[in-house]
Amino acid sequence: MALNRAVPGAESLGKEFGTSALGGGLRSRWSLGAMVGRSSAMERIFLQMRYLANHLRLGLIEGERGTGKLLTAQTLHALGTGQGGSFVACPAEEFFSGAAASQRLEEAAGGTLYLSRIDVLKAEQQGRLLHLLGWLQAQAARNSQLRPVLAGTPPPPRALLVSTERALRSLVLYGKFRNELHQQLSPVQLLLPPLRERRGDIAVLADHFLAQCSRQYGKTLRGISPEGLQHLGGYSWPGNVRELETVISRAALRCGGEWLHAGDLLLGSPAATPEPAASRGPAPGLWREPSSSPSLAPPAPTERPRLPEAKPSPTLDPNLDRAIVRHIRRVLASVEGNKLQAARLLGISRSTLYRLLDADASGKSSGQADEP
After folding, report:
1. Is there a contact between 134 and 309 (Cβ–Cβ < 8 Å)?
2. 324 secondary structure, DSSP code
3. 3-class SS at 309?
4. What's the CA gap between 291 and 166, in Å, rounded?
């Protein structure tokens, strides 16, 4: 949708709020899978995800409700080597209640298991999550040593992704989350910023959602008027990207013309349904392990789970920022220091590349040595 070509004054407004004439679609560096964003924060997240996808075995996604944690997990799965397996999403509270664990583990064999809202887990359920991490580590070690797998036993998930709406560090400080569990989950973490902190993405996201609505509803929708964009840009977006999608969808249904105007965009209405909430089924009981994996039985309530010592992979630096900078340096070396060409290969803007390199240089000057 060529937003800036048909509406007088949209070009200057687009510069303020980040809109552009998309025409045939979003430029590749503004999107990753179904994720969209042109802000420096999202460019950095896209770079992290491209780097992590093929190596990731355990990852934590943190962000407010509606920031796109489920979509981020799905994108990591699609980019990774486990994309041939299934992507299975389940609220963490539901996973550790009743017999859900056995079924979900079998469905995610060789693929990705995504557990949402681990921040609402009770102490007993947090212990089961610790035990699950230990079991997955043991299975990964067995596979790496080419040990035979029991006949009829499905392979474990290749990757486990978990998400939280609240900062786990704060929950640990208040005694609501186990510190050892936080330490296990924190080495690889993606922090999704709220929409109010990435206002440069509002217009490009709105245009993306409007294009989807145009196809879905069979309507000719050319774009959003300048006053409509101004209306969107001045809102606080407590429901984040999901609320923006809902606002655009409702406006597209209501609109009688080809352009959305401020009057079509009803802000402050209830946001879309949150990511799958925990089921209110049977009361949480002991975790029933798959019959083919007797070693999955949970520890007794008074017994602290003993986990194998986590050893960092020699091919994956546990410090994400340091690993990214090292990756950038390798790309720069391959193009003999040509920063424009390196930025294109990395899928980021040249200004983002400069910011990452400057941040690395300032870190070293302040005494933060780069580990080998």
Report:
1. no
2. H
3. coil
4. 34
**Residue 271 CB neighbour total at 10 angstroms:** 19
3-state secondary structure of 59: strand
Cα 136 to Cα 82: distance, rounded to the nearest angstrom: 15
Tell me how far apart the alpha carbons of residues 243 and 245 are, in angstroms, rounded to a whole number: 5
Phi-psi sector, 189: left (phi>0), alpha (psi -120 to 50), beta: beta
Q: Indicate the DSSP class of residue 287.
A: -
HSE-CB at 35 with a 13 A cutoff on CA atoms is 28
Q: How many residues does the chain have?
A: 372
Nearest CA to 198 among 25, 30, 356, 364? 30
Q: Directed axis angle between helix 320-334 and helix 339-346, to 10°?
A: 120
Instruction: Supply 312's token pair.
Output: 């960092």
For residue 266, the tally of other CB atoms under 10 A from its CB is 13
From the list 138, 177, 180, the residue with the least C-alpha distance to 295 is 138
Which residue type sits at 47? Answer: L
What is the distance in angstroms between the CA of the first residue and the CA of the last residue of the chain? 48
Beta-carbon count within 10 A of 287 CB: 23
Pairing of strands 189-191, 58-62: parallel
User: What is d(CA 234, CA 223) in angstroms, rounded to the nearest whole number?
Assistant: 18
Distance CA 331, CA 348 (A): 12
Each residue's pLDDT tens digit in the chain (372 positions)? 333 223 333 333 333 343 333 333 444 568 898 999 999 999 999 999 999 988 899 999 999 999 999 999 999 999 986 667 899 999 999 999 877 888 999 999 999 999 999 999 999 999 999 999 999 988 877 765 544 444 456 788 999 999 999 999 999 999 999 999 999 999 999 999 999 999 999 999 999 999 999 999 898 899 999 999 999 999 999 999 999 999 999 999 988 889 999 999 999 855 433 343 333 333 333 233 333 333 333 444 444 444 444 444 445 555 667 778 888 888 888 877 888 877 777 777 777 777 788 776 765 655 544 444
Residue 220 DSSP code: -
pTM tops 0.90: no
Give backbone dihedrals phi and psi of 120, rounded to 5 degrees, phi first.
-100, 5
Could you tell me which of 212, 203, 254 has the C-alpha nearest to residue 231?
A: 203
